[in-house]
Amino acid sequence: xxxxxxxxxxxxxxxxxxxxxxxxxxxxxxxxxxxxxxxxxxxxxxxxxxxxxxxxxxxxxxxxxxxxxxxxxxxxxxxxxxxxxxxxxxxxxxxxxxxxxxxxxxxxxxxxxxxxxxxxxxxxxxxxxxxxxxxxxxxxxxxxxxxxxxxxxxxxxxxxxxxxxxxxxxxxxxxxxxxxxxxxxxxxxxxxxxxxxxxxxxxxxxxxxxxxxxxxxxxxxxxxxxxxxxxxxxxxxxxxxxxxxxxxxxxxxxxxxxxxxxxxxxxxxxxxxxxxxxxxxxxxxxxxxxxxxxxxxxxxxxxxxxxxxxxxxxxxxxxxxxxxxxxxxxxxxxxxxxxxxxxxxxxxxxxxxxxxxxxxxxxxxxxxxxxxxxxxxxxxxxxxxxxxxxxxxxxxxxxxxxxxxxxxxxxxxxxxxxxxxxxxxxxxxxxxxxxxxxxxxxxxxxxxxxxxxxxxxxxxxxxxxxxxxxxxxxxxx
Length: 477
Fold this sequence. Notes:
- This protein is of the alpha/beta class.
- The protein has helices spanning about 5-10, 30-35, 65-80, 95-105, 125-130, 150-155, 170-185, 205-210, 220-230, 235-245, 255-275, 295-300, 315-325, 430-435, 445-450, 460-470; strands at about 45-50, 85-95, 110-115, 135-140, 160-165, 190-195, 215-220, 250, 280-285, 305-310, 330-340, 345-350, 365-370, 375-380, 390-395, 400-410, 420-425, 450-455, 470-475.
- It is globular, with a radius of gyration of 23 Å.
Protein backbone atom coordinates (compact mmCIF):
# COMPACT_ATOMS: atom_id res chain seq x y z
CA UNK A 1 0.00 0.00 0.00
CA UNK A 2 1.19 3.51 -0.62
CA UNK A 3 2.18 5.78 2.24
CA UNK A 4 -0.44 8.15 3.62
CA UNK A 5 0.40 11.68 4.75
CA UNK A 6 -0.57 12.74 8.23
CA UNK A 7 -2.99 15.30 6.78
CA UNK A 8 -4.70 12.50 4.81
CA UNK A 9 -4.70 10.42 7.97
CA UNK A 10 -6.39 13.24 9.85
CA UNK A 11 -9.00 13.48 7.13
CA UNK A 12 -9.93 9.81 7.39
CA UNK A 13 -9.65 9.19 11.12
CA UNK A 14 -12.32 9.90 13.69
CA UNK A 15 -11.39 11.81 16.80
CA UNK A 16 -10.89 9.50 19.76
CA UNK A 17 -12.80 10.33 22.90
CA UNK A 18 -13.78 8.99 26.26
CA UNK A 19 -12.24 8.97 29.67
CA UNK A 20 -11.31 5.86 31.61
CA UNK A 21 -10.85 7.39 35.00
CA UNK A 22 -13.42 7.18 37.78
CA UNK A 23 -13.86 10.61 39.33
CA UNK A 24 -10.63 11.63 37.61
CA UNK A 25 -8.69 8.66 39.06
CA UNK A 26 -7.74 5.30 37.66
CA UNK A 27 -10.24 2.56 38.36
CA UNK A 28 -8.24 -0.61 39.10
CA UNK A 29 -5.36 0.20 36.75
CA UNK A 30 -4.27 -3.44 36.31
CA UNK A 31 -7.77 -4.83 35.66
CA UNK A 32 -7.24 -5.39 31.92
CA UNK A 33 -3.90 -7.11 32.53
CA UNK A 34 -5.43 -9.34 35.20
CA UNK A 35 -8.20 -10.33 32.80
CA UNK A 36 -5.51 -11.20 30.24
CA UNK A 37 -3.83 -13.60 32.69
CA UNK A 38 -1.50 -11.54 34.85
CA UNK A 39 -1.55 -12.34 38.60
CA UNK A 40 -3.91 -10.14 40.61
CA UNK A 41 -2.32 -7.89 43.21
CA UNK A 42 -4.05 -7.64 46.61
CA UNK A 43 -6.06 -4.50 47.39
CA UNK A 44 -4.19 -1.63 49.00
CA UNK A 45 -5.30 -1.40 52.64
CA UNK A 46 -5.80 2.20 53.76
CA UNK A 47 -6.41 2.70 57.48
CA UNK A 48 -8.78 5.63 58.06
CA UNK A 49 -8.67 7.61 61.30
CA UNK A 50 -11.07 10.47 62.12
CA UNK A 51 -9.27 12.92 64.39
CA UNK A 52 -11.22 15.28 66.63
CA UNK A 53 -14.51 14.93 68.50
CA UNK A 54 -15.36 18.63 68.87
CA UNK A 55 -14.48 21.84 70.67
CA UNK A 56 -14.21 25.50 69.80
CA UNK A 57 -13.59 24.65 66.13
CA UNK A 58 -15.58 23.84 64.13
CA UNK A 59 -18.26 24.56 66.79
CA UNK A 60 -19.07 23.54 70.38
CA UNK A 61 -22.19 21.76 69.07
CA UNK A 62 -20.23 19.73 66.49
CA UNK A 63 -21.69 16.24 65.95
CA UNK A 64 -18.58 14.20 65.17
CA UNK A 65 -20.30 10.79 64.72
CA UNK A 66 -22.72 12.29 62.19
CA UNK A 67 -19.77 13.83 60.32
CA UNK A 68 -17.95 10.50 60.31
CA UNK A 69 -21.04 8.78 58.89
CA UNK A 70 -20.99 11.15 55.90
CA UNK A 71 -17.33 10.44 55.25
CA UNK A 72 -17.79 6.69 55.55
CA UNK A 73 -20.63 6.73 53.05
CA UNK A 74 -18.48 8.67 50.59
CA UNK A 75 -15.44 6.42 51.09
CA UNK A 76 -17.58 3.34 50.38
CA UNK A 77 -18.22 4.87 46.96
CA UNK A 78 -14.50 5.62 46.48
CA UNK A 79 -13.65 2.02 47.32
CA UNK A 80 -16.14 0.79 44.72
CA UNK A 81 -14.98 3.23 42.04
CA UNK A 82 -11.25 2.68 42.46
CA UNK A 83 -11.71 -1.06 42.77
CA UNK A 84 -8.29 -1.88 44.23
CA UNK A 85 -8.30 -0.14 47.62
CA UNK A 86 -9.83 -1.31 50.89
CA UNK A 87 -10.57 1.15 53.69
CA UNK A 88 -10.00 -0.35 57.13
CA UNK A 89 -10.04 1.04 60.65
CA UNK A 90 -12.40 3.98 60.78
CA UNK A 91 -11.85 4.97 64.43
CA UNK A 92 -13.08 8.32 65.71
CA UNK A 93 -10.56 9.57 68.29
CA UNK A 94 -10.12 12.75 70.35
CA UNK A 95 -7.52 15.17 68.97
CA UNK A 96 -5.06 14.25 71.73
CA UNK A 97 -1.59 12.72 71.74
CA UNK A 98 -2.49 9.71 73.96
CA UNK A 99 -5.43 8.78 71.71
CA UNK A 100 -3.28 9.18 68.59
CA UNK A 101 -0.43 7.11 70.08
CA UNK A 102 -2.79 4.26 70.93
CA UNK A 103 -4.26 4.32 67.43
CA UNK A 104 -0.86 4.58 65.72
CA UNK A 105 0.08 1.21 67.18
CA UNK A 106 -2.81 -0.36 65.24
CA UNK A 107 -1.74 1.00 61.83
CA UNK A 108 1.06 -1.50 61.22
CA UNK A 109 -1.16 -4.01 59.39
CA UNK A 110 -2.23 -1.44 56.76
CA UNK A 111 -0.39 -0.19 53.67
CA UNK A 112 -1.23 3.50 54.05
CA UNK A 113 -3.11 5.92 56.30
CA UNK A 114 -5.87 8.43 55.56
CA UNK A 115 -6.31 10.93 58.40
CA UNK A 116 -9.50 12.98 58.36
CA UNK A 117 -9.02 16.07 60.50
CA UNK A 118 -12.35 17.02 62.08
CA UNK A 119 -11.69 19.48 64.91
CA UNK A 120 -9.12 21.84 66.41
CA UNK A 121 -5.88 20.58 67.96
CA UNK A 122 -2.18 21.26 68.30
CA UNK A 123 -1.08 19.23 65.30
CA UNK A 124 0.85 16.82 67.54
CA UNK A 125 -1.79 14.05 67.41
CA UNK A 126 -1.75 14.09 63.60
CA UNK A 127 2.06 14.02 63.65
CA UNK A 128 1.97 11.01 65.99
CA UNK A 129 -0.15 9.15 63.43
CA UNK A 130 2.11 10.22 60.55
CA UNK A 131 5.13 8.96 62.48
CA UNK A 132 3.65 5.46 62.44
CA UNK A 133 5.63 5.31 59.18
CA UNK A 134 2.93 4.59 56.58
CA UNK A 135 2.44 6.78 53.50
CA UNK A 136 -0.18 9.18 54.82
CA UNK A 137 -2.69 11.76 53.60
CA UNK A 138 -4.45 14.37 55.74
CA UNK A 139 -7.83 15.70 54.64
CA UNK A 140 -8.68 18.94 56.45
CA UNK A 141 -11.87 20.72 55.47
CA UNK A 142 -12.32 24.42 56.27
CA UNK A 143 -13.15 25.30 59.89
CA UNK A 144 -11.82 22.02 61.23
CA UNK A 145 -9.07 24.02 62.87
CA UNK A 146 -5.56 25.12 62.00
CA UNK A 147 -3.65 21.86 62.28
CA UNK A 148 -3.04 22.01 58.50
CA UNK A 149 -0.36 24.66 58.93
CA UNK A 150 2.14 22.23 60.45
CA UNK A 151 2.08 19.74 57.59
CA UNK A 152 4.44 21.60 55.21
CA UNK A 153 6.98 21.70 58.05
CA UNK A 154 6.68 17.92 58.46
CA UNK A 155 7.12 17.44 54.73
CA UNK A 156 10.32 19.47 54.77
CA UNK A 157 11.53 17.26 57.60
CA UNK A 158 11.08 14.23 55.36
CA UNK A 159 7.73 12.90 56.55
CA UNK A 160 5.88 11.01 53.79
CA UNK A 161 2.57 12.85 54.02
CA UNK A 162 0.32 14.87 51.72
CA UNK A 163 -2.14 17.57 52.72
CA UNK A 164 -5.58 18.06 51.19
CA UNK A 165 -7.03 21.26 52.70
CA UNK A 166 -10.33 21.32 50.86
CA UNK A 167 -14.12 21.23 51.14
CA UNK A 168 -14.27 18.87 48.14
CA UNK A 169 -14.76 15.25 49.17
CA UNK A 170 -13.39 14.34 45.75
CA UNK A 171 -9.96 15.04 47.20
CA UNK A 172 -10.40 11.85 49.23
CA UNK A 173 -10.36 9.97 45.95
CA UNK A 174 -7.16 11.80 45.01
CA UNK A 175 -5.63 10.76 48.31
CA UNK A 176 -6.60 7.10 47.94
CA UNK A 177 -5.32 6.92 44.37
CA UNK A 178 -1.97 8.47 45.24
CA UNK A 179 -1.59 6.35 48.37
CA UNK A 180 -1.66 3.29 46.10
CA UNK A 181 1.56 4.26 44.36
CA UNK A 182 4.25 3.57 47.00
CA UNK A 183 2.50 0.30 47.81
CA UNK A 184 2.23 -0.84 44.19
CA UNK A 185 5.82 0.17 43.43
CA UNK A 186 7.00 -2.10 46.26
CA UNK A 187 4.96 -4.94 44.75
CA UNK A 188 6.26 -4.41 41.21
CA UNK A 189 8.71 -6.58 39.30
CA UNK A 190 10.47 -5.16 36.25
CA UNK A 191 12.02 -7.47 33.67
CA UNK A 192 15.26 -6.16 32.15
CA UNK A 193 16.52 -7.69 28.91
CA UNK A 194 20.08 -6.68 28.16
CA UNK A 195 21.86 -3.71 29.68
CA UNK A 196 20.00 -1.07 31.69
CA UNK A 197 20.10 2.44 30.22
CA UNK A 198 19.45 5.80 31.87
CA UNK A 199 20.67 7.68 34.91
CA UNK A 200 23.16 5.75 37.05
CA UNK A 201 20.87 5.27 40.10
CA UNK A 202 18.03 3.96 37.92
CA UNK A 203 20.41 1.45 36.31
CA UNK A 204 21.24 -0.05 39.72
CA UNK A 205 18.84 -2.83 40.69
CA UNK A 206 19.96 -2.45 44.31
CA UNK A 207 19.20 1.28 44.39
CA UNK A 208 15.84 0.82 42.67
CA UNK A 209 14.91 -1.75 45.31
CA UNK A 210 16.12 0.49 48.13
CA UNK A 211 14.44 3.66 46.82
CA UNK A 212 11.16 2.36 45.38
CA UNK A 213 10.91 -1.23 46.54
CA UNK A 214 10.59 -2.52 42.96
CA UNK A 215 12.54 -5.62 41.98
CA UNK A 216 14.52 -5.56 38.73
CA UNK A 217 14.77 -9.07 37.28
CA UNK A 218 17.38 -9.71 34.54
CA UNK A 219 16.12 -11.86 31.65
CA UNK A 220 18.37 -13.18 28.91
CA UNK A 221 17.64 -12.52 25.25
CA UNK A 222 18.11 -16.26 24.72
CA UNK A 223 15.08 -16.90 26.94
CA UNK A 224 13.03 -14.51 24.83
CA UNK A 225 14.16 -16.22 21.61
CA UNK A 226 13.26 -19.63 23.02
CA UNK A 227 9.84 -18.43 24.21
CA UNK A 228 9.17 -16.86 20.80
CA UNK A 229 10.06 -20.11 19.05
CA UNK A 230 7.72 -22.06 21.35
CA UNK A 231 4.63 -19.96 20.57
CA UNK A 232 2.08 -21.72 18.38
CA UNK A 233 2.11 -19.94 14.98
CA UNK A 234 -1.68 -20.29 14.80
CA UNK A 235 -2.04 -18.46 18.15
CA UNK A 236 0.24 -15.70 16.88
CA UNK A 237 -1.80 -15.35 13.69
CA UNK A 238 -5.04 -15.14 15.67
CA UNK A 239 -3.54 -12.47 17.95
CA UNK A 240 -2.24 -10.47 14.98
CA UNK A 241 -5.55 -10.63 13.14
CA UNK A 242 -7.75 -9.78 16.12
CA UNK A 243 -5.73 -7.02 17.76
CA UNK A 244 -3.77 -5.47 14.91
CA UNK A 245 -4.65 -6.33 11.31
CA UNK A 246 -8.43 -6.05 11.64
CA UNK A 247 -8.19 -2.87 13.73
CA UNK A 248 -5.65 -0.87 11.70
CA UNK A 249 -6.73 2.17 9.71
CA UNK A 250 -4.22 1.07 7.09
CA UNK A 251 -1.24 -1.27 6.69
CA UNK A 252 1.49 0.57 4.81
CA UNK A 253 4.82 -1.28 4.53
CA UNK A 254 4.86 -4.48 6.65
CA UNK A 255 3.78 -7.85 5.34
CA UNK A 256 1.19 -10.00 7.09
CA UNK A 257 4.01 -12.37 8.08
CA UNK A 258 5.89 -9.49 9.74
CA UNK A 259 2.84 -8.53 11.81
CA UNK A 260 2.25 -12.13 12.87
CA UNK A 261 5.90 -12.41 13.92
CA UNK A 262 5.55 -9.28 16.08
CA UNK A 263 2.38 -10.69 17.65
CA UNK A 264 4.31 -13.88 18.36
CA UNK A 265 6.88 -11.83 20.26
CA UNK A 266 4.10 -10.25 22.34
CA UNK A 267 2.77 -13.69 23.28
CA UNK A 268 6.28 -14.83 24.23
CA UNK A 269 6.88 -11.78 26.41
CA UNK A 270 3.43 -12.17 27.96
CA UNK A 271 4.25 -15.75 28.93
CA UNK A 272 7.56 -14.73 30.52
CA UNK A 273 6.01 -11.79 32.38
CA UNK A 274 3.24 -13.94 33.83
CA UNK A 275 5.78 -16.59 34.86
CA UNK A 276 7.86 -13.90 36.59
CA UNK A 277 4.82 -12.03 38.05
CA UNK A 278 6.09 -8.86 36.35
CA UNK A 279 4.24 -5.61 35.69
CA UNK A 280 6.88 -4.02 33.45
CA UNK A 281 9.54 -4.92 30.93
CA UNK A 282 12.26 -2.98 29.13
CA UNK A 283 14.81 -4.23 26.62
CA UNK A 284 17.97 -2.87 25.07
CA UNK A 285 17.52 -5.58 22.38
CA UNK A 286 14.14 -4.25 21.23
CA UNK A 287 15.47 -3.30 17.77
CA UNK A 288 16.81 -6.79 16.98
CA UNK A 289 15.67 -10.39 16.71
CA UNK A 290 13.27 -12.15 16.77
CA UNK A 291 11.19 -9.04 16.00
CA UNK A 292 11.22 -5.38 16.93
CA UNK A 293 9.45 -4.78 20.21
CA UNK A 294 7.14 -1.97 19.09
CA UNK A 295 3.88 -3.94 18.80
CA UNK A 296 4.57 -6.06 21.88
CA UNK A 297 5.25 -3.02 24.04
CA UNK A 298 2.23 -1.19 22.63
CA UNK A 299 -0.09 -4.06 23.61
CA UNK A 300 1.42 -4.22 27.12
CA UNK A 301 0.84 -0.49 27.60
CA UNK A 302 -2.71 -0.88 26.29
CA UNK A 303 -3.28 -3.40 29.11
CA UNK A 304 -2.10 -0.96 31.80
CA UNK A 305 1.30 -2.61 32.14
CA UNK A 306 4.61 -1.14 30.99
CA UNK A 307 6.61 -2.04 27.91
CA UNK A 308 9.52 0.37 27.49
CA UNK A 309 12.01 0.48 24.67
CA UNK A 310 15.80 0.77 24.64
CA UNK A 311 16.35 -0.52 28.19
CA UNK A 312 15.35 2.94 29.50
CA UNK A 313 14.95 2.42 33.24
CA UNK A 314 14.06 6.05 34.05
CA UNK A 315 11.17 5.98 31.59
CA UNK A 316 10.09 2.50 32.71
CA UNK A 317 9.77 3.67 36.31
CA UNK A 318 7.99 6.85 35.23
CA UNK A 319 5.44 4.85 33.25
CA UNK A 320 4.78 2.52 36.20
CA UNK A 321 4.27 5.46 38.55
CA UNK A 322 1.75 7.17 36.27
CA UNK A 323 -0.04 3.89 35.56
CA UNK A 324 -0.65 3.30 39.26
CA UNK A 325 -1.47 6.92 40.10
CA UNK A 326 -3.78 7.95 37.28
CA UNK A 327 -4.12 4.98 34.94
CA UNK A 328 -2.50 6.81 32.03
CA UNK A 329 -0.23 4.80 29.71
CA UNK A 330 2.92 6.59 28.61
CA UNK A 331 4.45 7.33 25.22
CA UNK A 332 8.26 7.47 25.34
CA UNK A 333 9.35 10.33 23.10
CA UNK A 334 12.40 11.76 21.37
CA UNK A 335 11.58 15.49 21.72
CA UNK A 336 12.48 18.16 19.15
CA UNK A 337 11.84 21.91 19.26
CA UNK A 338 10.12 24.31 16.90
CA UNK A 339 10.54 27.65 18.63
CA UNK A 340 8.87 29.43 15.69
CA UNK A 341 5.64 27.85 16.92
CA UNK A 342 6.48 27.81 20.65
CA UNK A 343 6.27 24.05 20.36
CA UNK A 344 7.89 20.75 21.24
CA UNK A 345 7.53 17.89 18.76
CA UNK A 346 7.37 14.43 20.32
CA UNK A 347 8.18 11.45 18.12
CA UNK A 348 8.82 7.72 18.51
CA UNK A 349 7.99 4.40 16.85
CA UNK A 350 6.50 2.71 19.93
CA UNK A 351 3.16 4.03 21.16
CA UNK A 352 0.22 2.76 23.13
CA UNK A 353 -3.10 2.96 21.28
CA UNK A 354 -5.12 3.40 24.50
CA UNK A 355 -3.94 6.81 25.61
CA UNK A 356 -7.01 7.34 27.82
CA UNK A 357 -6.23 4.13 29.69
CA UNK A 358 -6.90 0.39 29.35
CA UNK A 359 -10.70 0.80 29.44
CA UNK A 360 -10.68 3.70 27.00
CA UNK A 361 -11.00 3.65 23.20
CA UNK A 362 -8.12 2.82 20.90
CA UNK A 363 -6.74 5.73 18.91
CA UNK A 364 -6.71 5.23 15.14
CA UNK A 365 -3.40 3.83 13.89
CA UNK A 366 -1.47 2.79 10.80
CA UNK A 367 0.80 -0.24 10.84
CA UNK A 368 4.24 0.84 9.61
CA UNK A 369 7.85 -0.26 9.61
CA UNK A 370 10.22 1.02 12.27
CA UNK A 371 11.53 4.19 10.67
CA UNK A 372 15.25 4.07 11.49
CA UNK A 373 15.67 0.78 9.64
CA UNK A 374 12.50 0.71 7.52
CA UNK A 375 12.11 -2.85 8.76
CA UNK A 376 9.98 -4.72 11.26
CA UNK A 377 6.63 -3.43 12.50
CA UNK A 378 5.71 -0.28 14.40
CA UNK A 379 2.74 2.08 14.68
CA UNK A 380 1.73 5.51 13.50
CA UNK A 381 -0.84 6.48 16.14
CA UNK A 382 -3.20 9.42 15.78
CA UNK A 383 -3.27 11.16 19.13
CA UNK A 384 -6.06 13.61 19.92
CA UNK A 385 -5.51 17.17 18.73
CA UNK A 386 -6.46 19.66 21.46
CA UNK A 387 -5.62 17.19 24.24
CA UNK A 388 -3.66 18.48 27.22
CA UNK A 389 -0.61 16.41 28.06
CA UNK A 390 2.01 15.96 30.75
CA UNK A 391 5.65 15.43 29.78
CA UNK A 392 7.65 13.76 32.54
CA UNK A 393 10.57 11.59 33.59
CA UNK A 394 11.78 10.44 36.99
CA UNK A 395 15.59 10.79 36.97
CA UNK A 396 18.19 9.64 39.49
CA UNK A 397 15.35 8.00 41.44
CA UNK A 398 14.77 11.29 43.24
CA UNK A 399 13.64 14.01 40.83
CA UNK A 400 10.54 14.17 38.63
CA UNK A 401 11.12 16.40 35.61
CA UNK A 402 7.73 17.59 34.48
CA UNK A 403 5.96 20.04 32.18
CA UNK A 404 2.56 20.54 30.59
CA UNK A 405 1.50 21.17 27.02
CA UNK A 406 -1.29 20.74 24.51
CA UNK A 407 -1.34 18.76 21.28
CA UNK A 408 -1.92 21.26 18.46
CA UNK A 409 -1.40 19.00 15.44
CA UNK A 410 -0.18 15.67 14.16
CA UNK A 411 3.20 16.72 12.84
CA UNK A 412 3.46 16.64 9.03
CA UNK A 413 7.11 15.63 8.67
CA UNK A 414 5.96 12.41 7.06
CA UNK A 415 9.26 11.59 5.39
CA UNK A 416 11.49 11.99 8.45
CA UNK A 417 11.69 11.09 12.12
CA UNK A 418 9.77 8.44 14.02
CA UNK A 419 6.35 7.10 13.02
CA UNK A 420 4.13 8.58 15.75
CA UNK A 421 4.53 12.36 15.95
CA UNK A 422 2.70 15.14 17.77
CA UNK A 423 3.34 18.87 17.99
CA UNK A 424 2.67 20.27 21.46
CA UNK A 425 2.33 23.91 22.45
CA UNK A 426 4.25 24.73 25.64
CA UNK A 427 4.64 27.73 27.93
CA UNK A 428 8.00 28.88 26.55
CA UNK A 429 9.82 26.67 24.05
CA UNK A 430 12.81 29.02 23.88
CA UNK A 431 13.44 28.81 27.60
CA UNK A 432 12.84 25.07 27.64
CA UNK A 433 15.37 24.28 24.90
CA UNK A 434 18.09 26.28 26.67
CA UNK A 435 17.22 24.78 30.08
CA UNK A 436 16.68 21.20 28.91
CA UNK A 437 17.07 18.85 31.85
CA UNK A 438 17.14 21.75 34.31
CA UNK A 439 20.67 20.81 35.34
CA UNK A 440 19.59 17.63 37.16
CA UNK A 441 20.13 14.94 34.52
CA UNK A 442 23.38 13.84 32.92
CA UNK A 443 24.28 10.91 30.71
CA UNK A 444 24.24 9.71 27.13
CA UNK A 445 21.92 10.96 24.39
CA UNK A 446 19.01 8.71 25.30
CA UNK A 447 19.23 9.60 29.00
CA UNK A 448 19.25 13.32 28.25
CA UNK A 449 16.63 13.11 25.52
CA UNK A 450 13.82 10.74 26.43
CA UNK A 451 10.66 12.03 28.07
CA UNK A 452 7.30 10.29 28.55
CA UNK A 453 4.00 11.79 27.38
CA UNK A 454 0.68 11.18 29.17
CA UNK A 455 -2.80 12.47 28.42
CA UNK A 456 -3.97 15.00 31.02
CA UNK A 457 -2.29 17.63 33.18
CA UNK A 458 -0.88 15.77 36.17
CA UNK A 459 1.59 18.31 37.52
CA UNK A 460 -0.25 18.87 40.80
CA UNK A 461 -0.78 15.13 41.19
CA UNK A 462 2.94 14.54 40.81
CA UNK A 463 3.78 17.27 43.32
CA UNK A 464 1.52 15.53 45.83
CA UNK A 465 3.06 12.18 44.99
CA UNK A 466 6.56 13.60 45.39
CA UNK A 467 5.73 14.43 49.01
CA UNK A 468 4.65 10.82 49.56
CA UNK A 469 7.70 9.34 47.85
CA UNK A 470 10.39 11.75 49.02
CA UNK A 471 11.16 13.13 45.54
CA UNK A 472 11.71 16.62 44.21
CA UNK A 473 9.65 17.92 41.30
CA UNK A 474 11.34 20.23 38.79
CA UNK A 475 9.21 21.92 36.17
CA UNK A 476 10.95 22.12 32.80
CA UNK A 477 9.84 25.52 31.54
